[in-house]
Structures are given as structure tokens and as C-alpha cells.
Specification:
Number of domains: 1
CATH architecture: Up-down Bundle
Structural class: mainly alpha
Number of strands: 0
Radius of gyration: 16 Å
Largest sheet: none
Mean pLDDT: 96
Strand content: under 5%
CATH superfamily: Ferritin, core subunit, four-helix bundle
Oligomer: single chain
Distance between the termini: 50 Å
Length: about 160
């Protein structure tokens, strides 16, 4: 860890950094899953879903950035390479063989929901570690992910 004058004890910062780096891996994977859907969707709703999936990827990018910057502000090293994400992501594996819009909507909404669930759990964990700033970051991330999930899931609802 890097030296910092932030007033959170080192042992708590180490735990916070581990949590944040886990979500960073997940967010890098989530962006890649959205791009996978964007590149491979087919069917009657192609253009709407193609553009939506690209929007999801674009909106996840600043989430990754915010998480990584919080890691470094706590004195840690952001572990955000694609290889690290591939090794550490807790999101379900994205099915590579699908092409229909409905299948991509189902797969991407599953990934968004799982990411959102994990982020919400981290709100409580980071508050317990005495870091209201990280808890607030995760609260904001959770709201943004829930909105994206709504946009994607709406394509399966009547």
C-alpha cells in the first residue's frame, strides 16, 4: 500500500481496497459483456438493442473509473486489467453462442442484476469499515446500475 494521510486505519483500508478491486474486476467484465451483446445481437430489435448495449458499456466505463480512483485514494493499486478481471470477476460467464435480442437481454440483465446485488452488499460492508465515502460511491453505482437494468429488462416485459 502507498502512504496516505487519509484518516482511515490501514487495516480497514486494506479490506476496503480488496472490496473495491473486486468490484473493479466485475465492472470491467460487465463492460465487456455489454460490448459482447452489442457486437453480436441479431433480430427485429437489432438497432434498438445494439444502441442500448453500447450505452450500457459506455455508462459502466465511468463506474470502473470511479471505483479505481477510490482504490488509489485509499493508498491501494487499482487492479483493472482485462486479465485480472477475467481471473477475478464474480459475474456469471456470458454465453458466447447467443445472437437473438431476447437472449442477449436475458444474459446482460442477469449480469447487471448480479453486479447490482454485489454492490448493494458492499454498501453495508464499507459502512461497517468506517468509510462513508466508499459506501456513498457504491450507493451511487447501485442506482446507476438499477437504471441500466431497467432499460435492458424493459425489453422482456409487457
Amino acid at each position: 500500500m502507498h502512504n496516505t494521510k487519509i484518516d482511515i486505519p490501514k487495516d480497514a483500508r486494506e479490506k476496503l481496497i480488496a472490496i473495491l478491486n473486486q468490484r473493479l474486476a466485475d465492472s470491467v467484465d460487465l463492460k465487456a459483456q455489454a460490448k459482447q451483446a452489442h457486437w453480436n445481437v441479431k433480430g427485429m430489435s437489432f438497432i434498438a438493442l445494439h444502441e442500448l448495449f453500447d450505452r450500457v458499456a459506455a455508462e459502466v466505463t465511468p463506474i470502473s473509473d470511479d471505483i479505481a480512483e477510490r482504490v488509489t485514494s485509499l493508498g491501494g493499486t487499482a487492479l483493472g486489467t482485462v486479465r485480472v478481471a477475467a481471473q477475478n470477476s464474480e459475474l456469471p460467464e456470458y454465453p458466447l453462442e447467443i445472437s437473438s435480442g431476447a437472449d442477449h437481454v436475458d444474459a446482460l440483465s442477469t449480469a447487471l442484476a448480479e453486479f447490482g446485488r454485489r454492490v448493494r452488499a458492499d454498501i453495508d460492508k464499507t459502512e461497517e469499515l468506517g468509510d462513508a465515502v466508499t459506501a456513498d460511491l457504491f450507493t451511487t453505482v447501485s442506482g446507476n446500475i438499477d437504471k441500466l437494468l431497467w432499460f435492458v429488462e424493459a425489453h422482456l416485459q409487457n
